[in-house]
């Protein structure tokens, strides 16, 4: 089952648990707007190539929309979408094939039409912490490590619920990019034992098959790479007691059921990997205020958000007698549904 189908299934389950009216459910399920842009790019040999880009703006009941941008480095659709994104409308961020430099280019292009608007994108570049100021492009300190740090804060909240701490536990981390490497570093600093990692490149250490890592004996498994890596083919062999979903949709719904029967606790992606987008929100807030936070404030506030969110999810689990994934979905859906009803959009 692909990510869209799994998310739709989880959404409908959450809607049933909440007893949402069918009109509200449908209004939340259907995107507000789907945008298609086409850019014609001259190549070095003088020929022209057309690239098609898409952006889906799903819901703005609780404020501006937010989402990553993915494209090839040669494509430059910024001018095409300048009137469709905005500080209080839709705030893009880096994703596959884009980075802080790309966000700086989008900011520059957008500013040609609307004046200097650092809050129009997040994930912007920064200089060193010592030199950084609100007069730069508006990037936030702590953003680079935010997703991995959020994963660790989420893990700490879950483990505390079970009377455990990171110290002394064993961890296997699938994927050693930005998220996995930061998570590993922070786990090590807290006394955790990272006993296995996987990456697309080698490091000269004892090797194992990437799939073997997922079923390696450990206390905590953290998938940080691709979606769908835990499925009905390997879920029964998972030996970890806890799974922290740092990747998007790493666990197939069928695997979810198998893991639940085994007693494995799965902390869902919708919460566990939200540290990055949370600090993106902090960046947006700083840009709106024209005031920059120091890195300690960013990290401290992120920890407060992640800890409070976990307890809110647990409350929903108790209210609806559901697992953590449904607890997270019902929490999110209930908030957007309430905003939708208050705005009168369900009719």
UniProtKB/TrEMBL annotation:
It catalyses: L-glutamate + NAD(+) + H2O = 2-oxoglutarate + NH4(+) + NADH + H(+); L-glutamate + NADP(+) + H2O = 2-oxoglutarate + NH4(+) + NADPH + H(+). Coiled coil: none annotated. The keyword Oxidoreductase applies. Residues 140-344 form the Glutamate/phenylalanine/leucine/valine/L-tryptophan dehydrogenase C-terminal domain. It comes from the Eukaryota. Pfam families: ELFV_dehydrog, ELFV_dehydrog_N. The keyword Ribonucleoprotein does not apply. It comes from Salix udensis. Keywords: NAD, Nucleotide-binding, Oxidoreductase. NAD(+) binds at residues 147, 178. This is Glutamate dehydrogenase. Substrate binds at residues 66, 280. SMART domains: ELFV_dehydrog. GO terms for cellular component: mitochondrion. Belongs to the Glu/Leu/Phe/Val dehydrogenases family. GO terms for molecular function: glutamate dehydrogenase (NAD+) activity; nucleotide binding.
């Amino acid at each position: 089952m692909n990510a869209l189908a799994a998310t739709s299934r989880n959404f409908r389950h959450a809607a049933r648990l909440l007893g949402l009216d069918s009109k509200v459910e449908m209004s939340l399920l259907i995107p507000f707007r789907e945008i298609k842009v086409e850019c014609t790019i001259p190549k070095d040999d003088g020929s022209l190539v057309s690239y098609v880009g898409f952006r889906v703006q799903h819901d703005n009941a609780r404020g501006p929309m937010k989402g990553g941008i993915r494209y090839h480095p040669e494509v430059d659709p910024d001018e095409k979408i300048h009137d469709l994104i905005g500080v209080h409308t839709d705030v893009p961020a880096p994703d596959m094939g884009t980075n802080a430099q790309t966000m700086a280019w989008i900011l520059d292009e957008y500013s040609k039409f609307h004046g200097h608007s650092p809050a129009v994108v997040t994930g912007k570049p920064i200089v060193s912490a010592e030199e950084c100021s609100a007069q730069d492009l508006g990037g936030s300190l702590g953003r680079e490590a935010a997703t991995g740090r959020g994963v660790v804060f989420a893990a700490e909240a879950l483990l505390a619920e079970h009377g455990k701490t990171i110290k002394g536990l064993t961890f296997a981390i699938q994927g050693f990019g930005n998220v996995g490497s930061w998570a590993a570093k922070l786990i090590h600093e807290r006394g955790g034992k990272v006993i296995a990692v996987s990456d697309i490149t080698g490091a000269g250490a004892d090797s194992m098959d990437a799939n073997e890592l997922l079923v390696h004996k450990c206390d905590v498994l953290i998938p940080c790479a691709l979606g769908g890596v835990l499925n009905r083919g390997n879920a029964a062999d998972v030996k970890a007691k806890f799974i922290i979903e740092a990747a998007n949709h790493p666990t197939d719904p069928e695997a979810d059921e198998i893991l639940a029967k085994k007693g494995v606790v799965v902390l869902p992606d919708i919460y566990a990997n939200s540290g990055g987008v949370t600090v993106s929100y902090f960046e947006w807030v700083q840009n709106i205020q024209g005031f920059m936070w120091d890195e300690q404030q960013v990290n401290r506030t992120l920890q407060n958000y992640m800890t409070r969110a976990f307890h809110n999810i647990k409350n929903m689990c108790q209210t609806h007698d559901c697992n953590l994934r449904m607890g997270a979905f019902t929490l999110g859906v209930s908030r957007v549904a309430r905003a939708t009803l208050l705005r009168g959009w369900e009719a």
